[in-house]
Amino acid sequence: MVAVSVLQPMWLSIQLATFTTVILILIGTPIAWWLSQTGTRWKPAVQAVVAMPIVLPPTVLGFYLLILLGPDGAIGSWWVQLTGSALTFSFTGLVIASCVYSLPFAVQPMQNAFESLPRQYLERAWTLGASRLDAFFSIVVPLSVRGFISGIVLSFAHTLGEFGVVLMVGGNIPGETRVVSIAIYDHVESLNYAAAHRMSLVLIGFAFIVLMAMFVLNRRWGSR
Amino acid sequence: MIPLRHKLTRGSFTLDVDVEIPDTGITGVFGESGSGKTTLLRCIAGLEQMDGIPAHKRNVGYVFQDPALFPHLTVRGNIEYGARRATTHRVDSAPVVGMLGIGDLLDRKPGSLSGGEAQRVAIAAALLRSPDIVLMDEPLASLDRRRKDELLPYFDRLHDELAVPVIYVSHDIDEICRLCDHLILLEDGGVAADGDLFDVVARVDVPMLSGQNAGVVLWATPIDHEEGLTRFDFGDGEIWAPGEFEVGRHPMRLRVAASDVSIVRERPSQTTIQNVIRATIEAVHPVDAATALVRLETGHQNLLSQVTNRSIRRLGLEVGDRVFAQVKSVTVRH
């Protein structure tokens, strides 16, 4: 019983972070690429929107996501019509909220990597017969591996540590939205410090290992 | 002939080119920086206009000034990149690799290559794309003198062995005189002159080709050598040039700068100048207040001489006069 109460939030957090990271790489890559290539005067505005979750209090973000995803909200009502269930206080709702919350952590490292790539590489690839998409996957992606690693690690770790947004949008439903940060908060509130320690120490160790792995990988790829 | 028709406006600059170039050999594009040379190549390659046929469907081989090889691929991976994407037919890589002397580099990464080696690899990559036309944008400009001299023989081989037409952009008229067969002169985005290289450089009425840039190219065959000099037969007589060149070789190009040619009425009896050539004045064209360009006809070929207007007046030189050209120095090109 003890094991389940520790492992279940952990497992849920890892699932949430994994789903969020995969989705963020899929939608963040085109956004980052567009930002790195565009000359439009709207670029600063788009960049500001993408970066906003960094500076906004998670409660503010969570509050508006709650309204947006709720059964009466623009996205939430549409979802209810489509599936018959609400987005708020569900795992799916958490994934959507996490994607918004962690978007800058995926986009910015990739955008930096894309922007540091000499344009000449792209032009050479095109004149050698590669289409835009072909050149992106054969030249840009392999030369931006560091940006992708940073984006993956940062959005995964950031989602894992998310608290305020989860509390606002997901609440505290065991097995559905009770992720590890919520569980720790719960344990502290009920003065169960031993349980809080166990989870917190695992998180500290995890954060250290992930970040160190990222720096080691970056050094390996960087020195090629 | 291949038509080149390109028009593009960028701010206050307008490129407007409408010429035809031969479908074999190397066409040189000469002009100062800002004259639109690179823009012309980029238009041909589809890198400028974002509408029209996209670059990857144009089947051109583009050699940039900076080789910019893909750093994550080996040399082999780099030269196969275009070959694997060739749509028409695949060129056999062995002769190209041999011609450019990169056989020993195939497993290296671009980061370990010298500038000249990297440029040779970039050329091989462009050729193996089996292009309909090869575009070269100052491929020697980023190299120092020594590397340049190291690379030039490979370009001579390209000139002799390549079947596809090449457009070669440069701001160095000597480089162009060595490598090219046809010439386009670009000035402020427009064509100042174009045509056969030997004809265009012998013109006196093109301001771009005055001063340092004025001079002709002669075809000449080595006959024998003596005291470090080679005697050439240029069809209209003999001419000496420094260096010992293989006798009986195919004709070579001699570059004679206009500033190295002076004109005398009588054949001088005692002079340090080796080359005194009988010629007829074909044209006189003032360049500025002080100097003029004189085109001399030696029979089948031409010489240019840069002289002062004062000398022309003093000697009373006129079109049709029979004179002697004293050639102070000759550079052998290729």
Q: Can you describe what's shown?
A:
Chain A is mainly α. Chain A has one domain (2-222): Orthogonal Bundle (MetI-like fold), CATH 1.10.3720. Chain A has helices at 2-37, 43-55, 58-69, 74-83, 91-115, 119-127, 132-143, 145-160, 164-169, 180-189, 193-222. The longest helix of chain A has 36 residues, at 2-37. Chain B is built from eight helices and 18 strands. The radius of gyration of chain B is 22 Å and the shape is globular. In chain B, α4 (115-128) packs parallel to α5 (145-161). The longest helix of chain B is centred in the middle third of the chain and has 17 residues, at 145-161. In chain B, the strands form four sheets. In chain B, strands 4-5-6-3-7-8 form a six-stranded mixed sheet, with helices on both faces. A five-stranded antiparallel sheet of chain B has the order 11-10-9-12-18. In chain B, strands 13-17-14-15-16 form a five-stranded antiparallel sheet. The mean pLDDT of chain B is 90. Chain B has helices at residues 37-45, 75-84, 93-99, 115-128, 145-161, 173-179, 197-201, 309-315; strands at 2-10, 13-21, 26-30, 60-63, 133-137, 166-170, 182-187, 190-196, 215-226, 229-233, 238-242, 252-257, 261-264, 275-286, 291-297, 302-308, 322-327, 331-333. Chain B has two domains: 2-201, Rossmann fold (3-Layer(aba) Sandwich), CATH 3.40.50; 213-333, RNA polymerase II/Efflux pump adaptor protein, barrel-sandwich hybrid domain (OB fold (Dihydrolipoamide Acetyltransferase, E2P)). Chain A binds chain B through residues 118, 120-121, 123-132, 134-135, 138-139, 142-143, 224, and chain B through 45-47, 54-56, 58-62, 64, 66, 68, 70-72, 81-82, 85-87, 122, 125-126, 129.
Tags for this model:
heterodimer, A: 224 residues, mainly alpha, MetI-like fold, 11 helices, 80% helix, 0% strand, globular, B: 334 residues, alpha+beta, Rossmann fold, OB fold (Dihydrolipoamide Acetyltransferase, E2P), 2 domains, 6-stranded mixed sheet, 5-stranded antiparallel sheet, 8 helices, 23% helix
